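Standup, Tuesday
Yesterday: got the pipeline producing structure tokens again.
Today: sanity-check two examples.
Blockers: none.

Example 1:
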Amino acid sequence: MGTSGPRRRWLQGVAAGAVLHALRVRAAEPEELAKLSAAVQSAFGTTPITPGRVMIEVPPLAENGLVVPVTVRVDSPMTPDDHVTRIDLFAPRNNLAQVAEFHLGPRNGIAKVSTRIRMAVSQDLLAIARMHDGSLWSGAARVEVVSSGCG
């Protein structure tokens, strides 16, 4: 059986609410929220997201949006019985909201990834980690961009 229209809209609303809660966004543009919600739902479905366990290390002020260094850490022992399997990074005000996806396993030893991303404008970054048991955890950080890195 297919998902009915009202049920689908309700599930999308729940996913959008989880994203808002994860970002702790006080005021978001509806289009931005819809794009972020769609990207998160595409990556993780309607699985509930719990804030916590994920820390984003990023400079609070980026002079150049072309190369913003980002490190994501997840509180996990990285053992076969308790480890991170995936970390996704989202920048909702960029043209594409999902900016990075990393796959991990217990042999990584530490749940930490680093990269450099482009950022169009100042915004909240969202990182979501999937644990071995399927649970999702999130963290957010604000970055002020002085000079845009996306066209």
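Example 2:
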Amino acid sequence: MTTPASNATTGHKTNFIANWRARPKKIKLAQKIFFVQQLSVMLKAGISLSVGLKTLSEQSSSKNFKRILLDLQQSVEKGNLLSKGLEKYQRIFGELFISMVRAGEMSGKLEDVLKQLFVQMKKDNDIISKVKGAMIYPLVVVTMMVAIGILMMVYVIPTITGVFTELNVQLPLPTRILIFLSNFSVKYGVFLAIGAVIGVIGLQRLLSTTSGKKVFHIILLKTPVVGTIIKKINIARFCRSLSSLLKTDIPIVQSFEITSRILGNVIYRQALLEAKEKIKKGINIEQSLNPFKSLFPPVVLQMIAVGEETGALDNILEESAIFYEEEVSQTMTNLPSIIEPILVVILGIGVGSMAVAVIMPMYSLSQSI
């Protein structure tokens, strides 16, 4: 017999599943770049927004993106602005995208704004691709080092050192340490694996908190090489985003607020929000950012000051963005050659230590014979 309580539970489950399925899935950046580029070209050619959206939906290979574009087309046909329809998908397109589209509609230059968005998104995609590409090599090497180290400790070392323990002689300190680590890994390997999983989950939980994320981002900024790369990436995104927003005549205070939300580092976000409050009080941008010289180099602040004086801040920020994007690209290209010697040294120390621990007892035994 079905009770009201069970019916209610079933209803909640059904609603949850329906809501989960209806929830917009993440769209690849490459698909959004293609959408923005093609829509800009269509509008410039005189094709209506509604027809453009329908055409792009038919071309899309993603069922989810096709559904979103058709929904936007229906919204536009009902007389709504494109930005109004995009608000429903803020999680997918982001506040920067929607704000710039809204500004383009208000100024009557939507096609030009879409072109700026195309450049903005393409530059972001280039930086992300460069970072991911540069990190593949060291990640693969480190993963292989860890895997080989575990196999050596669990399978190879016990076989070799078993001979030494049967001889019942005093073994050198390095050999005893190696045997202890190997025995510990074999006996408590399961617990070590469980501890590692718990540690990773705990770290993720910690980094999901505001204070934990802040501490982690401070550490990253102070880490050699990594900190420099993070600063360049955030400065490039700051300059590019702020330039794009200013070109669409969005007020400077609102531009700072939007830009702060798209930067990856919490410390940079806080700096922009504090600077925004100062700008509200009438302080210029250069002076508002001046207390954060560790985040914004003097050359960036000087360029901003010149841009404010000449009234060409958007163009100067764009030039700064290009400079730092090229810096990031060059750094990512050279990163494998910087990391490779470090990995070789670490690998050499590990292999050398194991070799010494295994060879020393053999040498001692041969001398005693």
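Quick observation on example 2: The domain at 26-122 is CATH 1.20.81.30 (Receptor-associated Protein). The first helix runs from residue 4 to 22.
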